[in-house]
Amino acid sequence: MRGLYPDKADEVLKLYPGSTPEEVLDSATALASDRFIGFSTWRFMDAHAKRAGRPVYRYFYARPRPKFLGGYPESPGGPPAAPQPPSRGAAHSAEIEYAMGNLATNRYFEWEPADYKVSEVMQGYFANFIKTGNPNGPGLASWPAHGEKDGFQILRIDVESRAEPEKTRARYLLLEPLIRDEAGARRGR
Length: 189
What we know:
Blueprint: H1 9-15, H2 21-51, E1 59-61, H3 95-100, H4 113-132, E2 153-157, E3 162-165, H5 169-186
Parallel strand pairs: 1-2
Antiparallel strand pairs: 2-3
Helix pairs in contact: 2-5
């Protein structure tokens, strides 16, 4: 942290703590995710929610893929891949095949009934949003619009999907000027 944010390391470490090996791993994962795509997605979504005059719905996809069965897309039925380490959560873009409803076409994972349930729920939300501009509908957990009025809620999509308070806002508010300064430095300002 001191290498990335020399003048703000103590402040950053309060939101990305590292007092145990597990906490270091969790915070390093969170910071890498935030710097990769989390912050920029939040920034765009937050600005849109404030200026567009239309509701914005934010989700956090939490279902990790099931056990990898081996093989390679380039050579179906090829030699098994090396054993995979335990998942630390859902991988970036893992929700796409769930949202598209095509789990059965990917034979490289051991899909479980819970995976198909998550897929069905995602398709329900997405179809409702496409039809009406609102993802909510019968049989689905309430998904509040993202904004101060609703306490900055997000929908956590998992086997039991539910609305919950946004947990990353403080990190993103801290990162906002730091990332802006980094971008300015890269542009020579």
